[in-house]
Amino acid sequence: MRALGIDPVHETRETFRALLDAMSRPGTVESVPEPADYAVVATLVDHEVTVATDDETLREALSSQGRLDAAPPEVADIVHARESHAFDVRECTRGTLVEPSGGATVVYEAECASGRSEDLTPVTLFGPGVDGTATLSVGVPPSELDALATAQSEYPRGVDAVFAAGDRVAAIPRSVTLTVSDETTADETAAEEVA
Amino acid sequence: MTDERTADDPVASTDGGTTVPTDSVDAVLDSLDGDGLSGYNYAYLDEHTKREVRRATLKAVAVPGHQVPYASRPMPLARGWGTGGIQASLSLLGPDETFKVVDQGADESVNAANIRRLAENTADVETTTDTTEAGVVQTRHRIPEEVLTDEQILVLQVPITDPLRKVDSSDAANRRRHAHKNYGKMWVHLYENVVEWGEINIASRYPTMVAERYLMDPSPIPRWDVPKLDDAENLYVFAAGREARIYAVPPHTDVEPLAFEDREFTVERFPDAACHACGSTDTYLVEVSEESESPQTTREEGGGEAADSSFETRYACNDSSFCEKRREDSDIPKDHHLDREGVDWGPGTPDNEEASSGGAGE
């Protein structure tokens, strides 16, 4: 993925380790090579899986290596969601009860920060990987997170979300329960301390 | 003899029985000078394989305890010798990593040494036998005695991925059971075990519930190690090469061994035993048969029985690297490298001392 300015061996390995940390400890933010969403896609996508993206640079880079098997967001294994994306995450594939790992990985091109952050939407997480509860702030509107919560509500079927922008990445796997926190309340402050 | 080897001779290649000239074999051997590793990708696996393993590992973390299928590749050793673990480890390792390989608690077995050397040669990693120094630990049949931290990943080699295999040999039927969280057949198996033995008498591969959803085979670790999976600081990755499945237990995940209210899960008991080398009583011990020093060891004429009588049984720590530390400092706790108090790590950790000796009176 040199076309994207990402070293195909070492930077994809670093990205994988960051993703694995982010996925196994939801609420934590890890650093990856820039741009983060390209790094994540370059780490995960090849012709063995289908991908949905409307980013021309990404399509070209994947296609030039024979790694692009494009599909609509509703059926793709890996969905690259730019800020302007038009699909509904609730329509993405969630896998089957027998093989839930067929559920999509949705890579949002969105900022993320642990704890609360200005201009970002805070979510409270609990479940596997989280010690108590954790607060994560992501750069997507609350309505998108509500839709994501619905897309993850049929555990073990569901989608796994990755938030990647700049040099940072965070994840909300389907195993955790997410609650969009509206205004700061007393117990959220407690949650932040745990995080 | 394959077509490839005779490809430079088009006539010979059509005839499977043609012998390769000896000098060409010599030429092949000559070309193996050095490590024979030039031309291999970083960390041995090609990037296509790594992507496959990495995707499966991430999905395994997202659905804790679920066995995620992946395309397991041929490795430079036979399946069943840790090929799943190697693929998972090599997909994780980077040049700044320190790698440890444990085989049944020992760093020095041939299998462990070879896996360590493969990683050292191809991935340019540091290797260590000290659990506390390793970033990635690949292990067969044990979880180290020393507490693992949130900086570490434990990769377990798995021979049989499905805990339900012992109650039904049909993989298709078992996958349907997992889909519907239908574990009735395993409960019946445990009940029959209690009827026969008075307790649940499963030595290893103890059926374990992960995050209240999936029944998981924790690989052939002894019962002793099973409680370490619960609410751990570190990530566990279980990888099977032969069965081509990867599953995982993330940190801070509920992991509960199946048991009944009146027949609780118990770990192995070693009443009145201590490691003969370091004196530990709070570690997992194994029996070692050693020849006694009496001079009557005449193997040839005595046959089996005479030889047996000259052997004595002693106990030894199974985790050899921690045993070595204990030999230097017999008081060193299993969480000596952590500054936190209240670390709970399997039976017999400093805060749970009673668990290791509790069974002695039974």
TrEMBL record, chain A:
The keyword Cell wall biogenesis/degradation does not apply. Signal peptide: none annotated. InterPro entries: PhnH-like_sp, Phosphonate_metab_PhnH. Keywords: Lyase. SUPFAM superfamilies: PhnH-like (SSF159709). The keyword Hydrolase does not apply. GO terms for biological process: organic phosphonate metabolic process. Pfam families: PhnH. It comes from the Archaea. One of its GO terms (molecular function) is lyase activity. This is Carbon-phosphorus lyase. The gene is phnH.
UniProtKB/TrEMBL annotation, chain B:
Residues 1-25, 287-362 are annotated as: Disordered. The keyword Lyase applies. Pfam families: PhnJ (PF06007). GO terms for molecular function: 4 iron, 4 sulfur cluster binding; lyase activity. The keyword Lyase applies. Residues 322-343 have a biased composition (Basic and acidic residues). InterPro entries: PhnJ. Keywords: Lyase. It comes from the Archaea. One of its GO terms (biological process) is organic phosphonate catabolic process. Transmembrane segments: none annotated. This is Carbon-phosphorus lyase complex subunit PhnJ. It comes from Haloarcula pellucida.
